[in-house]
Amino acid sequence: MKLVILSLVRDDLKAIRLYLSEYGESPPKRFREGFQAFCAQIMDMPFSFSPYEHAPSYFKGVIAYDYLVFYKVDIEKGRVMIYRVLHSKRDARPLLG
Q1: Can you give the residue range of the structural domain that contains 18?
Q2: Closest CA to 83 of 66, 65, 68, 62
């Protein structure tokens, strides 16, 4: 599978790193490592996480510091597309469009 990270996700990741950097060097590093491990896992096993209950066409997985990664799998094109990375306390429904 090919991994596609949308530009909105890059904005999410920048904001998360900026926020976590307020707590020292370790939290952003731990988050980055968790995100990279998550990406490697979904490229190998894209259906290993649960469908998002409010929008079943998306899957969601949890990474460091209770952040959720929302993604879709396109079997025909052989790709996994990451749509958003949001904190678990946020209401993702209006942000997934």
Answers
A1: 2-96
A2: 68
88: domain CATH number is: 3.30.2310.20
pTM for this entry: 0.93
Helix (H) or strand (E) holding 21: helix 7-21
Angle between helices 7-21 and 26-44 (to 10 degrees): 150
Contacts of 81 (CB under 8 A, 6+ apart): 4, 5, 6, 71, 72, 73, 74
C-alpha 1/C-alpha 43 separation (Å) is: 5
Q: How confident is the model over 13-48, as pLDDT tens digits?
A: 999 999 999 999 999 999 999 999 999 999 999 999
